[in-house]
Amino acid sequence: MSEEKKEIRVGMIGYKFMGKAHSNAYRNLPFFFNLNVVPVMKAISGRNEAKVKEAAQAFGWESYETDWRKLIERDDIDMIDIATPNNMHYEMAIAAAKAGKHIICEKPLAMNTRQAKEMYDAACKSGSIHMICHNYRFAPAVQFAKRLIEQNRLGKINHVRGTYLQDVYLDTESPITWRTRKEITGLGVLGDIGSHNLDLARFLVGEFQEVAALTETFVNQRPAAESENQNEADKKQMEDVTVEDAAALIARFENGAIGTFEATKLAGGNLNGNRFEINGEKGSIRWDLENLNNLEVYFTDDEPGIRGYRTINCTEKYHPYAEAYWPVGHIIGYEHTFINLLSDFFNGIEQGSSPRPNFEDGLRNQILLESIEESAAKKVWINVSEKSNSISIKE
Amino acid sequence: MSEEKKEIRVGMIGYKFMGKAHSNAYRNLPFFFNLNVVPVMKAISGRNEAKVKEAAQAFGWESYETDWRKLIERDDIDMIDIATPNNMHYEMAIAAAKAGKHIICEKPLAMNTRQAKEMYDAACKSGSIHMICHNYRFAPAVQFAKRLIEQNRLGKINHVRGTYLQDVYLDTESPITWRTRKEITGLGVLGDIGSHNLDLARFLVGEFQEVAALTETFVNQRPAAESENQNEADKKQMEDVTVEDAAALIARFENGAIGTFEATKLAGGNLNGNRFEINGEKGSIRWDLENLNNLEVYFTDDEPGIRGYRTINCTEKYHPYAEAYWPVGHIIGYEHTFINLLSDFFNGIEQGSSPRPNFEDGLRNQILLESIEESAAKKVWINVSEKSNSISIKE
Amino acid sequence: MSEEKKEIRVGMIGYKFMGKAHSNAYRNLPFFFNLNVVPVMKAISGRNEAKVKEAAQAFGWESYETDWRKLIERDDIDMIDIATPNNMHYEMAIAAAKAGKHIICEKPLAMNTRQAKEMYDAACKSGSIHMICHNYRFAPAVQFAKRLIEQNRLGKINHVRGTYLQDVYLDTESPITWRTRKEITGLGVLGDIGSHNLDLARFLVGEFQEVAALTETFVNQRPAAESENQNEADKKQMEDVTVEDAAALIARFENGAIGTFEATKLAGGNLNGNRFEINGEKGSIRWDLENLNNLEVYFTDDEPGIRGYRTINCTEKYHPYAEAYWPVGHIIGYEHTFINLLSDFFNGIEQGSSPRPNFEDGLRNQILLESIEESAAKKVWINVSEKSNSISIKE
Amino acid sequence: MSEEKKEIRVGMIGYKFMGKAHSNAYRNLPFFFNLNVVPVMKAISGRNEAKVKEAAQAFGWESYETDWRKLIERDDIDMIDIATPNNMHYEMAIAAAKAGKHIICEKPLAMNTRQAKEMYDAACKSGSIHMICHNYRFAPAVQFAKRLIEQNRLGKINHVRGTYLQDVYLDTESPITWRTRKEITGLGVLGDIGSHNLDLARFLVGEFQEVAALTETFVNQRPAAESENQNEADKKQMEDVTVEDAAALIARFENGAIGTFEATKLAGGNLNGNRFEINGEKGSIRWDLENLNNLEVYFTDDEPGIRGYRTINCTEKYHPYAEAYWPVGHIIGYEHTFINLLSDFFNGIEQGSSPRPNFEDGLRNQILLESIEESAAKKVWINVSEKSNSISIKE
Fold first, then answer.
1. What is the DSSP string of A6-35?
2. What total of structural domains would you count in chain C?
3. Among partner residues C148, C311, C319, which is closest to A309 by beta-carbon distance?
4. Of D135, D170, D201, which marks where a domain is finished?
């Protein structure tokens, strides 16, 4: 059977949290999905040779590189997975596109709209398959929510309220990382976790029309990162946090819905609260990443007297991706969202079209993030639709 | 024992939903609280004699009036309870204050800030006791939340997110009422339910500094009210909804916290979702009116590994007002929030000072509501603190 | 209007927890329900004159007695409410029945089956209206559950699991009360709280056929009661707990369902966990007294993919008794279960028939409790149906 | 680094649900855990060559066998994983033990106590490492519960209530499988899912002393299995269900605790409700497999007024096994319980001792299951301790 399968040789850049999550997904994809196009874990790239060598072995990559440009140039690599800090996405993706490789890129797509547009154009021009890693779209419950909306089970949507609440930054001893440095990360929590929640709103509700936002940095300084901190005297050295650690916004959507959104890493008691509630004329849905297998659904036209939010454990054959895994009620976890995303990616290669979310979504999200940032900075409403329309995005 | 008790003779204006809720509270107050100052249900007032007479009997009032001015003038009335539509509050409260009566007024205090300021000034000048009926402050769980915050159990507060979600307006057959007519109600859902949620934020977090808001009217027309609708032909007659049925805002507080707020009656599956979550540096709290006896509390400095939101059923002697009722775990309901409020009111009469929330809170809330309305209309941030400071409010 | 209403003059015996709860219900019944037969709170009875006098005033009774026999004999008393410790129910109910009074009696009906049968026979013979105070049947959610079952919405019932979990006895300093003394209470937690949960099973599922049970007394001694404990030296005096503080059983029902039940006051974290889940061939329901307004409902024949327990807030006009109170989503509390029960009682007087649960239910429950006690003592299965059949109960 | 690792060559028998779950665990174990002893997926065995060949490829096994005896005899196999229907466990485990192989065996261990005792003796005699696959012990939340109990955080345990509720058998069209045939499965739901829940009770609370039980078969016939069902006429052919589909019991534990337990596949709305609540003198815990990352914990000695069940998301470094996976709040799923179990198994090989649960647990569980079966059949209490004591089990 395997002789019929087309193998795609993957080169991945990055070996930390996302590197581990992506590696795990490549490893397990063929176990759960019977695809005609399958990944081969060819090479991983990172600057620190000792660490990337260790990662290659631990994660199951055949080889490693210490120069990502060499990785992209390799003839035995068909696709590039960019799992690096944000400031590297642009250069890498452009290079990969020019080299004609398929591309998966972590979110947010770029440091700004200009970069994102170039990346999108390059990817389109290359004709290769591209996706952005908004993996939470791929929880079966979220995909099922999408299906219900497409079937008009919620009717016209009036409201969406989204939050992504974590509390890791409450620990003021937690040191500076690349995620708190503007030159590396671009945006703070807004780009890191907010972008995921906003992408879900775009996926499920549609395009944003306008936003009014605020951002805040509650913890302005943190201990310098560990590596610069080797002797005791240095431990007290503090470094500035140069990005926001909280953001909030109100929004109007092009279809008339209104929304509220918030992202923070200072919400005690919320470990990974990527949540949304959507209210339409005919029904409502609620979801929470901390309990990612469940979707709560309400139908206005249920029989009077027995109307109420119902909790659906999305592990039945009726729920997208669920059949790949275990019998009903045997829940999957965070990591499976990546596996599901990859199944779409490799199916996309087979079919010759880029599945959503792709670089177009990355670009649209970037425009949205930049609008939010601008709104917060200038304290004005920003028209997202106008910004998007001013950029030629092919539908 | 009763000879020692001071009796306060109450005259109430209004006999519908709020009239019933207030009447119930007066009736039951002495049963649950052993007060030195107690109400006597002297008279109820309403324009329709048949209906007010029926209400007087059903609710337990000794007499009735069809002219509220006569009620206020009666020598055997010591306090006036204003439970009417919003457009009447101003005139009634001013008259009651001038007559030297104690006053309880339903929320929102007035149709605009100018009215509210006059009412506040009149009440202050009269020296009588005054309160505004933000009854949800008086859920034991909310009062307990206040105590935890005052004890600095949450530390410096960074976040508050409040929603008041109902779904009664999803039924498009639901007719026009005074609550959808701008000339009677002033604001729509923002004043009706949003004001409750915003008052809780002021109570627990502090004063708003600035807001950016949007409002929306999703259902623009509704069937004309029943009374105008007697024959079949009339039933199709539609009337304009002249107020918002949804509102959302982001905010900064004077103490540096940031917040998001939303009020709507189109959120399917939410019957009475007056909710908040507050995150401080040391802890968090969550509350939901639909389950009003419970407070969820999280402490950052709980032992590592066993940190998590805990659900507290606020029916123990440690929780404000709870001892007045039943043994632990025997929950109270919506109506008891009014009884608790009244216990503060009559204690206030005994002690000679107006308990919170009083007309100062009503005025501050009105300034806030007007700021939100203005922000939504002009699509700009509005500085609430400046507005408040420009009005001489005694602290 | 009031001249058309028939007044029933009530005499109540007992003035503690249940005395307060019943008094509150009589006071509020006419406020919420527009009945043709209404109570007049004529007299309360208790042995301690100072306390009963105080209770009469606090609870709103016109007069008091210190001898319950005199109360029953009074010509101006039409019904007797027995809210005393269990060992007094028998004598009082027999006397009340002989005097031709209507009777409400607290649960459990009696100290044993023999007493209960006599009480039942006396009540039947008297022709008066009688009920037993299993008030939890009267939560709107429970009555709605009953309706769903009667409409065959759950299909044939296979399973019921009931628990009544409290934790008040975890405090080993909590003193001896009449509820821990066998000679006064008969059974311990089984009679006190277990009987409520078992009554719900009988109400919703049907008659028990056979039971196998265990009981346990985990805390064998407690400080002597406060009243005997006046000087410091006495405080260390301990007294034996002579009843069970935990009980568990498995059961078969006459209709083929099977069940598990448990009652305890040592289940930390459970303040008032009177709960059940019922599973039928077509659907399931769940309820929890701590959140008494909600009923969770599952239908097997819901559309595949969107099956799941839904949470129904039973405050809509579709839910029994709910219209008597507040708009949707404005929850009621513990005390309203008594008001609802009384509305049935006084309607029963008007219609001339005893509403359920009446003394027949009290007797059947007593047989069930005695079967459980016997099963636990002898460590054998006990056939409840046979016991019931051997006693002539009219259907 | 890999040259230092000791490789254990695995042979697995069975390729259906458990075969897939175990295969997945072997594949992923080295990815998440840095072990010194690691599995090599050498061979899988099954009777149907086409299917086992396909499974070998899909699941990642190097080779396959169609005769399990040959698998066990292979010199290049160090351990045997028995993932077959229950009636084969005995013969296979005995053969594997005699061949000196390490053994993992699915639950329940055997068809009866006699078999289980022989298997236990053979495993002890062989000196190899053995475990039984009660994988739910290995949810981080369950292991954390165990740690809390060992630290005496709950105090003396009084209560345990366990249920394992599924609803797959509500579909009466669901055909006969080996799990409904007594000759293959031994026990029905009691052995299949009940055994998991009872094992958790033994793990967390201790050994059972005595039980009183009932069992029931609600659905007596089901369509014949698919394979025998190929033409349309056959489809109506029904076959008897020869095992129970529901079971319930009450129990006493050797340490004085009491318990209630239930297992059923007819509890609509419960997809995989493997749940327990344990109440001790100082605290309580609750767990639910459907939300397996969470543990709910209550402490009696928490500060008065803020006592309540708290929900702990067991994804922090303080929780057993959690560090092997993802950052806090990024939940794991069902399959990871097997990976955690295997990490203990291979650590056990390194350390030379069989981790729990091992064949001793399998034997003790078998005695317990047989006691329950006997109790239900004879309708008497059965003393489990006596049965266990009569069998020489080394501690």
1. EEEEEEEE--SHHHHHHHHHHHHHHHH---
2. 2
3. C311
4. D135
